[in-house]
Amino acid sequence: MLKRIVSGIVLTMLLIEMSTLAFNFQLVKAEPKIWTVDDDGPADFHTIQEAVNAANPADTIFVCSGTYKEHQVTIQKPLTLIGENKSTTVIDGNGSWVCVYVQSTHNVTISGFTVRNGYGIYSYASEDVTISENIVSDSGQGIILIGSTHNTISKNIVTLNSLSILLSENSDDNKVSENMVLLNSGDAIWLDNSHRNIICRNNVSNNGLGTAPGYHVFGIRLSFSDNNTIHHNIIIDNYEQADSWMSTNNVWDDGYPSGGNYWSDYAGVDLYSGPYQNETGWDGIGDTPYVIGGSDQDRYPFMDPRIHDVAVVSVIPSITEVYVGQVVNITVIIQNKGKFTETFEVAYKYKLEGAEYVIGFIIVSDLAPQANTSVVFSWETIDIAVYKIRAEATLLLSEIITSDNTMTSPTTVKVTILGDVNGDYTVNILDLVKAANSFGATPSSGAWNPQADIYLDGFINIFDLIKIVFNFGKTA
Questions:
Q1: How far, in Å, are 66, 164, 315, 327, 407 from residue 381 at the CA level?
Q2: Phi, psi of 416, deg, nearest 5
Q3: Host H or E run for residue 114
Q4: Of the options 2.40.10.220, 3.40.50.2000, 3.40.800.20, 2.60.40.10, the CATH number for the domain spanning 310-416
Q5: What is the pLDDT, as a whole number, of residue 11?
Q6: In 33-105, where do the E strands start and end?
């Protein structure tokens, strides 16, 4: 009897343990996964569509550089689709139908691709789709939203297409920003029966060139579209700059002093300032509105696209290899390219495993026009990894040109275990030998090795070697 009781208890405990393991397994299995695609190398898949079909909602698909000739990559679930490099990771529609088609879903990101030779990127009846940092070129159409809401189209280069960016059929509450829409034969940005969208900080230039007489091609076009906001765009030398037809309550500026848009054909002058442009002194804003058509007008057109403009010129870490807990000084040079003295904030960030983290902030005060300044931020490292360092100057109130507000350092910072002199993420005899070869060295001597100077006192001695011994066997 006792044996049976004990056996029953053991069996019950085993069943509970197995259930717990199964439950934990299910939890792990449900976590988002990163899939890889490579058309000519080892990876999870060799085509993008195969990866999309196999992925679970919220997974990430990383596509290696290459040319993928696929007939309509169709996404019908929440996914992140990331290309290795937007210049070398190509989705080629092979002259057929839509290159990338997001259908009746939400929370999709498409970034880092060249999309060409087809019908670009479509979002149909979808929400919270982000289309960013792509090159869309040589296509019948560019980036199209149909009945899609709360989407973001940003930082894309859209060029050499017949139609560039279209929001249609109640594509409402979207944001189209910081895109370069250049040299397209048709309309650059067209809102058709779409409402409450924000169109800002885009460069819309040289579209519709070579259009036959009698045809109308516009840089920005509204039709049957209401309550949209259009400001801080650069609109240069399009066949026709803008049009608003059967559309109401659209605002073509961001008020005063934030301003409106820059129009290359604006013929006004800047002698006055103030919200009514009747106060003494110029302000970089035209004294008379730019008329779009009907009652639509830009009340505060910019005289110069760089009236307010700051840029990050360089980002230089003081050291490229460092031990955990040691300090890296990051020197950033900032330039004021505008015409007014500016005060603004600079953020320091690092990127790790696709995520970005803020290291800190510094305020730049009263930087004069056309002047440079150098700012230094100290970063105490805490984790072992290879980091990309980026500096970002916050956008000024009326800043139009924003592509130069951020810069990533061309050199990475490698943080490793204290005592890992040779940089292989393990502290062993090889590190001790390498440090011993620099014994007695100073920065001015030929045998100097900064990684062997564990105590950062400018002298490699017995204390540095002892520190390596204390960390012997550690690995990352």
A1: 35, 44, 17, 6, 21
A2: -130, 180
A3: strand 114-116
A4: 2.60.40.10
A5: 36
A6: 34-37, 59-63, 66-69, 73-75, 79-83, 89-92, 100-103
- The count of other CB atoms within 10 Å of the CB of residue 158 is 30
Domain ranges of the chain: 1-31, 33-298, 310-416, 429-470
Kindly list the distances between the CA atom of residue 158 and the CA atoms of 37, 71, 87, in Å, as whole numbers in the listed order: 25, 21, 13
CB of 186 within 8 A of CB of 210? no
- Retrieve residue 83's tokens: 């290309």
| Pair 116, 98: CB distance under 8 Å | no
Strand pairing category for 240-245 and 218-223 = parallel
Q: Residue 322 in 3-state DSSP?
A: strand
* Beta-carbon count within 10 A of 95 CB: 13
27's tokens: 């939890």
Nearest to 58, CA basis, from 24, 98, 26, 105: 105
Q: What are phi and psi of 170, to 5 degrees?
A: 65, 45
CATH number of 429-470: 1.10.1330.10
Which amino acid, residue 79?
L
Which residue is listed with tokens 């600079």?
346
CATH class of 33-298: mainly beta
- What is the 8-class DSSP label of residue 228? -
Chain CA centroid to CA 125, Å: 24
Q: 257: cis peptide before it, omega within 30°?
A: yes
Report the DSSP beta bridge partners of residue 388: 351
Q: Which pLDDT tens digit goes with each residue over 3-24? A: 343 334 233 333 334 444 444 4
| Burial classification of residue 416, based on how many CB atoms lie within 10 Å of its CB (0-12 exposed, 13-18 middle, 19 or more buried) | buried
The answer to whether the CB of 408 falls within 8 A of the CB of 315 is: yes
Q: Which positions of the chain have pLDDT values less than 70? A: 1-30, 353-354
Residue range 409-454, pLDDT digits in tens: 999 998 887 777 787 778 888 878 888 888 888 888 888 888 787 7
User: Nearest CA to 262 among 306, 310, 296?
Assistant: 306
SS3 24: helix
In this prediction the pTM is 0.78
